[in-house]
Known about the structure:
The protein is an alpha/beta fold. It has helices at about 25-35, 85-90, 125-135, 140-155, 170-180, 200-215, 225-235, 250-265, and strands spanning about 5-15, 60-70, 75-80, 100-105, 110, 185-190, 220-225, 235-240, 245-250, 270, 280-290, 295, 300, 305-315, 320-330, 335-340, 350-360, 370-380, 385-395.
Amino acid sequence: MRNVIEVEHVYKSYRLGVIGTGTLSHDLNRWLARMRGKEDPYKQVGVENNRTVAGGQYVNALSDISFSVAEGEVLGIIGGNGAGKSTLLKLLSRVTQPSEGEIRIRGRLASLLEVGTGFHPDLTGRENIFLNGTILGMKKAEVQKHFDEIVEFAGVAKYVDTPIKRYSSGMKVRLGFAVAAHLEPEVLVVDEVLAVGDAEFQRKCLGKMQDVAENQGRTILFVSHNMNAINRLCTRGIVLRSGKMAFDGTAAEAVRLYEVLNSEELKAEASFTPDHTADCQIVQAQLTNLTTGKAERNIGIGQPFGVNYTLQLNTLIRSIHMTMVIKTAAGEIVFLSDRRDDPEALQPRDPGTYTGEIQIPNPLLVPGTYTITLGLINYDNGKFFHAKDILTFTLADNESARAQRAGQIFVPLKWNIEKK
Length: 420
């Protein structure tokens, strides 16, 4: 099977600092000053300006990336924020050029990198469908052949003759994906942009990409933080870390490595500098194994765990409300708890330091990586304090969690049966 994408020793560097002053005359004056060995005449006082130094400073967004993708292959590209995933897709989509190395693509490539990419806001949905088809190299007859399928898939039939600028972000991304998937490019590049759509549309997208790959033999490059989607859709995965290739192999192995790399950055404890001007504040939080009483960032399924916290109140508060949100690594909220209906929360609290504990039912979550956000609200005046994503932990699979591998959990319920 032939390769449709070949990436060989690709580097992408970006220059730090301000590039250009905004006017041609100022740029010329700056260049003349540099040639004469003089200081930048437009340098801001107290600010380091990399343009004052010959060569400047550079950062490598990608370093020595090499891989190939065969025809009909579905490749998942995963990595943390800033790993270089979007930069790589931009290079493959010809949005920008590599600083070094070579990229070869055989066939037409359609990319969906950002919401509304390639759409003209003043044109209608109908006109933009034909415009995008033309950009992809399609003839008018080819676009017309798939027009009804595109509109139906995107769910915008009612608004197809309305200018795109009046579409919501979800409508734009639905239409953009529908155009890219139905106009039969040899290579389809999809970024995390699908997270904009609702759950039902995401399922439709995954189903469509599976159909495109399995039944039509087209190549897909898929970037996502949703590891379930990577495992379901992709046959192969590469892991990027700090702009470098950390792994290239099966999708399942790539996901496991990504979770291991994430676990190295888990945060079982967090603390904040007290702000004496705030009504109330979380000054310390810790993810605790309730069996050992110690801070742990790796929890086994079935182990009791919770969050210990310290609050600082700087004024009398008659009613304080506390919240806890647990999210997946992809940012999806999977659990929320608050003390809105707790009678104790309505008790007045004098200024001072308070400690508390939240016990998290186990089993509650399937294996994976999660973040915890804590919040405080002073009901007296509506002021709030949020400690966002302050704790990060992983729930590890074990022998007692076999049933959870398919995304299932078991929580005992109270059953009541009465004879009528």
